[in-house]
Amino acid sequence: MATPDGPPVGDDGAMGIGSVSAVWRHPAKSMQGDTVAAATIGSTGMLGDRAWAVRDEEKGGIRGAKKIGALMDLKAQFASEPTADDPTPAIEITLPDGTVVGSGDPDVNERLSAALDRKVSLWPLQAPSDLDHYRRGAPDSDDLDAELRGMFGRLPDEPLPDFTPFMHVMEFESPPGTYLDAYPIHVLTEQSLQALQVLNPASTVDVRRFRPNLVLDLGDGSGERFPELGWTGRRLRIGEVVLDVVYECPRCVMITRPFADLEQDRPLLRSVVKEAGQNVGVYANVVQAGVVRPGDEAELLPA
């Protein structure tokens, strides 16, 4: 049913807000990923997303590009598609010099360490019960404020994010059993990217900087610069999947990193902090599992 002056509303009160423009999967934490034609989403996130990660063998702990920025210059692809029975199949990693190393190659750790200028080892997901594997490594600074400002790229006069919604991962690099930052699914809108481009005409506001799972296009009728920031506490139905939007996504130094064909862009983060309250995109838990594809309709469920 269509309303006279707004988006369509279903019989259950769900309001159509747009559709999926892209589904992104990143086989390895902080490495480049790619779009996929379909993705299976379960309670712990997207099948095959962040299935591998590197461990810092000097300071300990799984590491992402908040700490090892050069990870974003690597691109990971699966050698075969992940399945429910084999959620972490082998990956092939393209290094900055164009050579490829496989996760099963005997020299994979040495070659990754050379590319990252840091002694690392490559790991598939381990059991959630292996808490030591997921525990945070040693910080780079004994000054907690300095440590956090380095990770989130905040200037001395800028506020740090509110970490209350992330207390469950303060002890760990990621929720045990995953290599995710905090929550299973990250949703971003085309409208937020467009708003940032208008605010930063000299920047290249590329979706790859933000590493979402699902990108939604709300068309011309959203009326907001960063519309998804208003969805916290609401539920989204996207294709077969229902998501519970739990918190905005605070952006960190990663969106400023140079990688692939993108140059370093510190002003972009300054704009996010000032104009978007530090947040672009939202995190969500999975209420109903299923498959999501580009073109699937997105609906905001009744509060």
Give a structural overview:
By secondary structure, this protein is α+β, with helices and mostly antiparallel strands. The protein has one domain (15-300): PK beta-barrel domain-like (M1 Pyruvate Kinase, Domain 3). It has helices at residues 108-116, 131-134, 144-152, 190-199, 266-275; strands spanning 15-25, 34-35, 39-42, 45-46, 52-56, 62-63, 75-78, 91-94, 100-102, 120-124, 185-189, 214-217, 235-238, 241-250, 279-288, 290-292, 297-300. It has a seven-stranded mixed beta barrel. Strands 4-3-16 form a three-stranded antiparallel beta sheet, with no helix packed on it.
Outline the secondary-structure elements.
Elements: E1 15-25, E2 34-35, E3 39-42, E4 45-46, E5 52-56, E6 62-63, E7 75-78, E8 91-94, E9 100-102, H1 108-116, E10 120-124, H2 131-134, H3 144-152, E11 185-189, H4 190-199, E12 214-217, E13 235-238, E14 241-250, H5 266-275, E15 279-288, E16 290-292, E17 297-300
Parallel strand pairs: 11-12
Antiparallel strand pairs: 1-2, 1-12, 1-17, 3-4, 3-16, 5-6, 5-10, 7-8, 8-9, 11-15, 13-14, 13-17, 14-15
Keywords:
seven-stranded mixed beta barrel; three-stranded antiparallel β-sheet; 17 strands; alpha+beta; 14% helix; 5 helices; globular
Quick synopsis:
This protein has 303 residues and is an alpha+beta fold. The protein is 14% helix and 27% strand. The strands form 4 sheets. A 7-stranded mixed β-barrel has the order 1-12-11-15-14-13-17. Strands 4-3-16 form a 3-stranded antiparallel β-sheet, with no helix packed on it. A 3-stranded antiparallel β-sheet has the order 6-5-10, with helices on one face.
